[in-house]
Amino acid sequence: MNSIKKVSIIKESCRRISISSFVPEFKEPSQYDIDKLKEFIIKTNKLFVLTGAGISTESGIPDYRSEKVGLYNRTNHRPIQHIEFMKSPDRRKIYWARNYASWPRFSTFKPNTNHLIFSEWEKKGKIFHHVTQNVDSLLVKAGCLRLTEIHGTSYKVKCMDCNFRLTRDSMQLLIKEQNPYWNIITNDLAPDNDVQLSKDQIKDFNTPTCPNCKNDRLKPEVIFFGDSIPKKIINLTSEKLLKCDGLLSVGSSLEVYSAYRIILQAKELKIPVSILNIGPTRADQKADLKINTLCSKVLSKIKF
């Protein structure tokens, strides 16, 4: 076996290990579960889809709350709070150093079966609207258009002082330009790309400044913990839900109220709710159908 082939096999093996390490333990779905969800999908003419981090673990991105493998269960690391990012220059320095170091890996993740299936369902006219809690933009990469990224996206950045905007790839170049000798790279992963670095690794990093106003409050267009979703986004999702006749929640524990609220609204409107997730969710008692297994194991079996 030549060296190039060996390297290729090693890389593929590492990729598989990386992906499987963030998928919680699960049981195979029963045929009954598959049939019931298929029946739900076929009966629904205008489907509202709500997705969370669980659809992206199969791409190799960890989630927050999954038993044993979620970020909260593996580490003491917690996501940055909106107020600390906005008020603390030191926290902005730490955030951008960590984000910059992990972006080369985070930005290469690709859509998996789940993302591609939702894109296919949308093209077939089944999905009326799709709300995702994820900031990884893998649904965008998969071609989804009827989509609201309710917590924003890691792929866009804006200045909180002058509203100057740039892409995350452009931000990477800007940081490199302002840190020509800072070369830390990490293989650590986090759902929001906010990974761990030591104080020693961060000390020589220069916080990036806005090309327009020269202030240092550049921020990814992501709703950090403690921040509020814009009212116009909440109104948009509510208006879309009003026109739907079925809601499917996939890969979300629904612990965050921005997602749970949509379930509550669906129940008020008497819209049937199906939930597909590994482990319990906040809305299990609200669901007309709950399936506890790996998302792709069921979604890949549904044809219409």
Topology, element by element:
Layout: H1 3-20, H2 31-43, E1 47-51, H3 71-74, H4 82-87, H5 89-106, H6 113-123, E2 127-132, H7 138-142, E3 147-149, E4 152-159, E5 165-167, H8 168-178, H9 199-202, E6 218-222, H10 231-242, E7 246-250, H11 257-268, E8 273-276, E9 289-291, H12 295-299
Parallel strand pairs: 1-2, 1-7, 2-3, 7-8, 8-9
Antiparallel strand pairs: 4-5, 4-6
How would you sum up this structure, described in words?
With 304 residues, the protein is an alpha/beta fold. The protein contains twelve helices and nine strands. The strands form two sheets. A six-stranded parallel sheet has the order 3-2-1-7-8-9, with helices on both faces. α7 links the parallel β2 (127-132) and β3 (147-149). α10 (231-242) packs parallel to α11. Residues 1-18 have low confidence and may be disordered.
